[in-house]
Amino acid sequence: MGITGQDGYYLSRLLLQKGYEVHGIVRRSSVMNRVRIDQLKQEIPEHANRLTMHYGDLTDNASILNRVLELEPDEIYNLAAQSHVRVSFDMPMYTQQVNADGALNVLEAARMLNRRKTVKVYQASTSEMFGGLPGTVPQSEATLFHPRSPYGCAKVAAFHHTVHYRESHDLFSANGILFNHESPLRGENFVTRKITLAATRIAEGLQSVLKLGNTKAQRDWGYAGDYVEAMWLILQHDTPEDIVIATGVMRSIEDFLDAAFGAMELNWQDYVQIDPDYFRPTEVHQLCGDPTKARDLLGWRPKTSFEELVRIMLEHDRELARREKWIGEMATKS
Ligand code: NAP
Ligand code: F7E
Questions:
Q1: Ligand 1 centroid to residue 36 C-alpha, Å
Q2: N or C: which end of the chain has fewer CB within 10 A?
Q3: How many domains does the chain have?
């Protein structure tokens, strides 16, 4: 579930490389929403025959139940969500339906299948459950939840359902509590990607202003490619465990701006405008994870540094900007 998203791409790539047969649930939409998956098929054509898509929607219980019972998977990764925190304030009910009720649909389907054969379920839980109030860092598995958005509230519900199914139905269901992880495939309206797209477009003369909200917020940013490995390790562990996945280092949006604009030899203060439209009714100020359990139990450590992450994202987005510029120049010539 959630195969068409950022993590869906990286997890599918990892599983295919490990020899898995991968089945993904995709929503019907009027334009094709499979850009990342199409890219993956082009990148590893030798594995593409083990990747299959099925229509379904997390809020449509029958579609999830039918797919799970038909396909009889060994492992289910529920990555599907309305994943934008700011948007969740505009669509609280919808966010709850997808992120909480949808997760329950997955667990119910797994419970049914578990009567026939053992199945393991990974639930994409999040640092947003902690709420990031000052004085609560670093956050670990022992930190109390204090969600500050409809997104966070829905994810707390899904977290508890996942624990409950493990305890009451003997299902192997586990939560990965992942802190922010980014990549060149990050959605364009998340702050890191918004910044790398803007910095590279400004460097190519395609943009002059970047409007942002609260640049003082602090996050623990890692690389999505590293984090999906942790998802897989969580399901390979002997017992189902809820585990924080993070780098343990916290930086502000302004630090990210320094790194990205600095690499383009630009000063972000010359381009960034603060736009209150991007403020959230309640902000999550500080998120910084304590990944000790992940290290001790799974042997997992992040491999990609912050500097490397910013570099990878900029390299990708600079190429996009150059292509856009070239197309613009061709259009004016013709
Ligand atoms: P993403 O890029 O927004 O991808 C979300 C995926 O969920 C997409 O494939 C989307 O499909 C699918 N989806 C949304 N609503 C659905 C529905 N009703 N039925 C079926 N599929 C639906 O998110 P991501 O960054 O890959 O994150 C993956 C998961 O981890 C999410 O659950 C997110 O909440 C959680 N998480 C993310 C982070 C992070 O920093 N990235 C951190 C902690 C937790 P479409 O392509 O059709 O929209
Ligand atoms: O915001 C601030 C904003 O939207 C990060 C999701 O993957 O990670 C993600 O949620 C910070 C916030 O990510 C803009 O106020 C400033 O403090 O990139 P973001 P997020 O809200 O942390 C968690 C772990 C998830 O689980 C979620 O699914 O940046 N910020 N100016 C801005 N944020 C955005 N989006 N846009 C701005 O213009």
A1: 13
A2: C
A3: 1
